[in-house]
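Narrative progress, year one. The postdoctoral researcher (J.K.) led the effort to move from monomer predictions toward full complexes, under supervision of the PI. The following entry was the first complex the group processed end to end, covering 882 residues in total.
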Amino acid sequence: MSVNETLATYSNYLVYGAMAAYTVAMIAFAWSLASMRGRDLVPAAAAASASSGGGVAVATKADVTVGGPDDGALAPGRRSGNIGMSTMWFGTVLLFGGVLLRGLSVQRAPWGNMCEFSMTSALGVAVVFLAISLKRDVRWMGIFVVLPVLLALGASMTFLYTDAAQLVPALKSYWLVIHVSAAVICGGAFCIGAALTVLFLVADSGERRAVAGESYRLDWLARRLPESAKLDAMAYRVHAFMFPLWTFAIVAGAIWAENAWGRYWGWDPKETWAFITWVAYAAYLHARATVGWKGRKAAIVALVAFGCFLFNYFGVNMLITGLHSYAGV
Amino acid sequence: MTDVRADMPRPDGGGEGSGDDRVDDVQKMSTAPSQVDDASAVVGIGVVGWLRWAWRTLTSMRTALILLFLLAVASSVGSFFPQRGSNPIRVTDYIANDPKGKLLDRFGIFDVFASPWFAAIYLLLFVSLAGCVLPRSRQHWRAVRSRPPSAPRNLTRLPEHRVIDAPEDTAPQSTLDSAETWLRGARWRVDTTTYDGRTGSVAAEKGYSRETGNLLFHVALLGMLLAIAYGSLYGFKGTVIVREGSSFADSRSQFDSFNPGAAFDPESLPPFSFTLNAFHADYQRGGAQNGAAREFSADVTVVRAPGATPTKQTIQVNDPLVIGGVKAFLVGHGYAPTITIKDATGAVVFHDSVVFLPQDGNFTSTGVVKAPDTVPQIGLQGIFLPTTSIDPVTGPTSTFPAPDFPEVFIGAFVGDLGLDAGRPQSVYKLDTSKMTRIGKEQLAAGQVWELPGGHGTVTLDGYVQWASFSVARDPGKELALLAALVAISGLSLSLLVRRRRIWVRVSTDDMGVTVVEVAGLTRSEHTSVAEEVDELAGSLGTTVSRTTASLDV
Ligand code: HEM
């Protein structure tokens, strides 16, 4: 089976096109964030809770008010946010085409090496973000999503770049398709989970300092973010949704390893770090249910877990040799 | 954060400062152990007290958290240092070249995953898990069979609260009845207290499978550990190299290396055999990945049991030979030059294809030949190059893995091979301590080398390929897979199902005014029951007051 060079070339053009679109989206999102009107960081709740202490007999009519960016239809920064979302969709369609053509050019799933894996992961991040955007307004986090997407694509097209080619025999298995597609979606969501977690930490610091009356260097950002509790809950949802899928990705990998190498688990560095990542995310879920760990500490555990995921992705492929070190990096 | 939630005791028992025990009790929706340090409360009760303290500490979630961290850190060590199990040669090199090597080895750094301290961490973790999960299962079993907890005194303090104006002529009891009907229709578990003239209420709960899933997941982890242990006790793993034209019979003595589990029964090896007819390899030509493997396959003739009809089959990398629970995987390949040695009298003292081991990606391969049945004994050290080129620095090296231009470079020795000393010798090493080197030569297929000093001749007849197979059986793997699937299902239930409670209360005060309230609660802060409370409220009448602490995420 040979490589269809024409398709491979068009694939590259589409990926460059996607990068251009994402760059426009990035500028638009940045503009949108900058022109947003910030919220008051001292929560209304802090003031209100003082009065609700002694068993209020008559229910107060306190309809949910979510401060921050997503009320008010004509809020400043709205239009540039919309431009960001549209170019994000456009870029993602291009990227999807690029990944598809790359796969067609070699007639296999387009994730045989790190170049292709990064490309597909970038698509994963974008798709997870756009999927979330269908259900709620997430323009405010666009910039924090489009940045890692651009970084992954940049890496894929430069120092990770590998010409389209056939696979080494160990990678020829439909379990590769199942295992890696699950891992790619997880990668996308872990990335978004990590972005939300960092934003939670910023918003949380902002709110704490505001209550304490201290100044905060990232105050301008904290003001433009939703409440920390909301960010925390969103981050948790993304992680909680992803953890079973990550478990599944590992199990699919084990089944594939059993088929290819005769053992389902061999503590190969890649396997070891997938396990470490899994344990770290499990620790995050536990931390959230443990007094003294919830909140900021749990958030840090989530970031450490994401660090493990990234290390497995870059560190293990490049620094450690094992069965998973693919041909052409 | 909105007001109601801010001063509520946390559902998981973190309870700071609320005086209303009922609410606290009602909020506990999982069997998760209370985190208030009950561990420290028992100090000073002697040995039993200490033991109980130790057990409580071990089975607390905080300990589990710390053990999880330790497990992650310990396994990362295993990824940074070469491991004996997967890479014994690199371990030997490491110990030989690094002065710290021996010390590290003492601490099991090269066998992390089989070391006592690694086992200690995961065994503690799993004892902790068992100690936590078993009592929780009992508790949950009781919870599932008991009634939903009755309504707290003060419903207004719950995160969701509605006051409803029921249609004029509705009797209090019929409001309760319709609430019950609605809830049962939506598959809630319901418990109704009849209206006694002053008050009556309905308590309902849904989403027990969250906790069931959580317990199932943790139990499945225990099951997986047992499956892994079972597999490594009763299974085995061996490797064998087979040359084209040669056979392998599945018995212990035929393996090049064999690692049985502690309880492995040699009788359990199915008596199959196979012959390697031909091995095919295909490589990328040109481009950045020139020489990368694209296709391996081994054509074999299999005899499944003594006396069975031989069948032809192909073994490929992702497609092993499977016989009676044993699988033979194609894991490697190489070349075996066919060499004939004649001694000074012209008698053939050696004729065979000799397995040479590949040293690099282009299959520059090395091997030795020993001809003991002649005086003096003859030994050869050789390099086989599938595509020969002579590098000015490194000498003879292969530049492509396929046999485009195969040649051997041979050094010949005569003297004593040292085979009679009774010490086992590697077939890949020549002990030249009692031998003299008599010359070297470069041979292509068919060429004959007259050994200097009239010691005879060496002929390269050609070459065959060899394939290496990993033959293994892991009787625990189906169990492990089952446990993994249960774990994933349990997890999905535990993370996606919401556990929630709803109460409806009708109360009539001294003035004869009847108030209908609907209130709801979820355990986890990332979900809400607002929608369900609203729907139920809507079915009972018009909502006149609405309080919600939902985060609307
Ligand atoms: C060693 C003892 C362990 C104990 C005592 C323990 C205890 C618990 C408890 C009480 C919960 C429920 C938390 C809640 O109700 O919110 C929980 C949840 C969970 N545990 Fe464990 N666990 C242990 C080990 C493990 C291990 C080894 C893993 C996997 C690596 C694990 C993964 C999880 C996950 C993913 C959840 C779900 C968290 C959630 O519902 O948000 N646990 N564990």
